[in-house]
Amino acid sequence: MGFATTRKRRSAAYGRGLNTDKPKTFLVESYVRQLDEPRAAAIARRVEEAAADLHRSGLAIVWLRSLALLGEETCFCLFSAQKVDDVIAAGRRAGLDFDHITEVVSIEPVT
Questions:
Q1: Which of 10, 27, 96, 97 is 20 to 30 A off residue 72, Cα-Cα?
Q2: Tens digits of per-residue pLDDT, 4-39?
Q3: CA–CA gap between residue 36 and residue 92 (Å, rounded)
Q4: Looking at the domain 21-104, which fold is it?
């Protein structure tokens, strides 16, 4: 399953401009060797504190939550921020390498 290899992916929202004043949601993926629940909780605390420090210094960034895939040694973090550079700064401040960062859209239950 997947896309044919000849299909090109378009990441610029098919040419539509995005409102840069409005905060975006970013999903961050990090590979963490020997990830267990206590280590995942410690990472989440560090990332939360880093984002809060940056927010107090004037950046529009908020840590939303973290998820850990313990069996895959992978940690995901969700942030609300205006710029991806602010998310990168939070990772650096928390001492966490981000392997992948992408903008996402959150879809909530209707009921």
A1: 10
A2: 444 454 555 444 445 557 889 999 999 999 999 999
A3: 21
A4: Alpha-Beta Plaits (3.30.70)
